[in-house]
Amino acid sequence: MKRVGGVAVLAAGVVLLAGCVRDSGGASTTTVTKTAEPIPEESLAPEPSASSTTTVPWSLGEYAQNDYQKTRAIAVEQASSEYSQLAADQQWWKVEIETCALADLQGETVTTGWSPWGLQGDDGGSYPASNMTWSDFPKPQYPFGSDPIPVGQCRKGWVMVAMNQGVSASAVTYSPDGATGTTWTVE
């Protein structure tokens, strides 16, 4: 952010109305009128900080990256699972995801799991990733628990999300604890 320093400069328009006026005592008096107006300071808009910058949603396949990891949603498709016994008014969707560890996170390894992931529906609803897995979910599955990823390695697989019947996915959401969320648009 640029900083403007210094004292505000005044432009003074001085108008002298000088006249010799004699009062009854014979002394002469001088009258001076002075008008000053400030010069307006340059208006500077602050530069956006990293925390106030708005990010446009990513397209499927594009990496979102920070200092520690890069992550992407690759594909979104309808799915099925006979064993999960999903309610009749719901349907399964699968999201293919990849996360790569770039560096240690302040002495701790990057971990991954299903809980930060979800879908936004074309009905405006938010649908979280499933909180359980079934043997007939698509393989390879994205790591389910808090799976550590060694620096320089990646984890890739499918996450399952139950949505209302007849609703289509409009975006993939990733909202890890304590971090800014990321969105990938489903087209």
What do you see in this structure?
The protein has a 5-stranded mixed beta sheet with strand order 5-15-14-10-11, with no helix packed on it. Strands 6-7-8-13 form a 4-stranded antiparallel beta sheet, with no helix packed on it. A two-stranded antiparallel ribbon has the order 1-4. It has a domain at 58-185: Immunoglobulin-like. 0% of the residues lie in helices and 42% in strands. The protein is mainly β and 187 residues long. A hairpin with a 7-residue loop joins strand 14 (169-174) and strand 15.
Write down the secondary-structure element order: EEEEEEEEEEEEEEE
**For the report, how would you describe the main beta sheet?**
5 strands, mixed
Q: In CATH terms, what is the fold-level topology of the domain at 58-185?
A: Immunoglobulin-like
Mean of the pLDDT scores? 75
Oligomer: single chain
Name of the top-level CATH class of the domain at 58-185: Mainly Beta
- How would the global form be characterised? globular
Order of strands, widest sheet? 5-15-14-10-11
Indicate the CATH architecture of the domain at 58-185: Sandwich
Number of strands: 15
Number of helices: 0
Structural class: mainly beta
